[in-house]
Amino acid sequence: MSWSTDDIPDLSGKRAVITGVTGGLGLHTAIGLARRGADLVVTARDARKADTAVARIRQDAPGSSVDVVSLDLASLADVRRAVDEVSTTYDRIDILVNNAGIMAVPRREETVDGFELQIGTNHLGHFAWTAGLWPLLRTGPSRIVQVSSNAHTIVGSVDLTSLSPEGSAATYHRWQSYGQSKLANLLFALELDRRVKAAGLDVVSVGAHPGYAATNITKTGPTGGGLSLPGIGMHQVSRILGQPASRGAMPLLMAATDPSLSGGEYVGPSGFKGMRGRPKVVGMTRVARDEELAQDLWTASEAALGRSFDV
Questions:
Q1: What confidence score (pLDDT) does residue 200 get?
Q2: Which residues of the chain have pLDDT under 50?
Q3: What are the start-end ranges of the H helices in the chain?
Q4: 70, 79 Cβ separation under 8 angstroms
Q5: Of 103, 132, 233, 238, which cross-links 242 as Cys (Cβ 3.0–4.6 Å)?
Q6: CB neighbours (10 Å) of residue 278?
């Protein structure tokens, strides 16, 4: 029997934290959780867009509790500030969905801290965010979802020098960089699962991907933010071949709530090549299951932060 949003259990009294809710997957994930009673803490970089997203959530889930925290994952200082805000306001987190991200930035750019922008935002920002929130997560029971992508299949490794102060000497290729950042998300999810199980903690760490979903990132990602003919064209193709953001969010919702998941699973669409369809537990590449690479990524990420993430 296929999973649907009707299978989401009652989440009354549960607190869900979701990054990147100003559109697309994050917005529809927030709506899905709010409809089942979860209290939301959502993050955004743009206050105006955040207000619009909150109004939409409350429209689709009347009576829902939604708090907004400003967060720029491309700045480790801002991640620390946001972590402090959440940690002083709330006593626990039941569900953490690390969804925010950027895609295929056309030219090499850097985060505030000097890391290549895609790996620095999509992976390192979320690694720092999760590490900072760990005291609110580790007591459990809690669920942590890292949002990856089918793009993790287009790369054979992660260039760990991109997380070093010197940076990578390799020529920048937008899709390779994006694929590596999404592979890093999945490696992080599985390594976190291994560590929480070894520590005997009541924490479930899983990965999810939306398939080929038509979201804001498909429209603005190829230009690094603004609209362009390539971005609009890609978005139109996504609308034809893919599925709407509301359907793309279903694997994220399943990953965040399905009680049958015990950790280490990867949830995605069940249709052809994982592009669309009802969500289910899906496979991943061999390199995504590479425990040595995952451990090395964890070590490199800790070094980039200048602090340990001790599970």
A1: 98
A2: 220, 232-235
A3: 24-35, 47-60, 76-89, 117-118, 126-137, 174-199, 216-220, 229-241, 245-248, 250-257, 291-305
A4: no
A5: 238
A6: 15
Q: Which two tokens stand for residue 296?
A: 């090395």
Given this model, what pLDDT does residue 223 score? 53
pTM of full prediction above 0.85 = yes
Each residue's pLDDT tens digit, 98-121: 999 999 999 999 999 999 999 999
Report d(CA 271, CA 192) in Å as an integer.
Answer: 28
Give the position of tokens 């867009």.
49
Q: Which of 90, 178, 212, 266 is catalytic?
A: 178
Q: Is the omega angle on the peptide bond into residue 62 within 30 degrees of 0, that is, cis?
A: no
Q: How far apart are CA 184 and CA 176, in angstroms?
A: 12
Measured over the CA atoms of residue 61, residue 63, residue 68 and residue 73, the dihedral's sign is: negative
pLDDT in tens, 221-238: 555 555 555 554 444 555
Residue with tokens 């990602």: 221
178 a catalytic residue = yes
Kindly report the CATH class assigned to 5-304.
alpha beta
Query: 64 CB contacts (<8 Å, ≥6 apart)?
Result: 34, 35, 39, 40, 57, 58
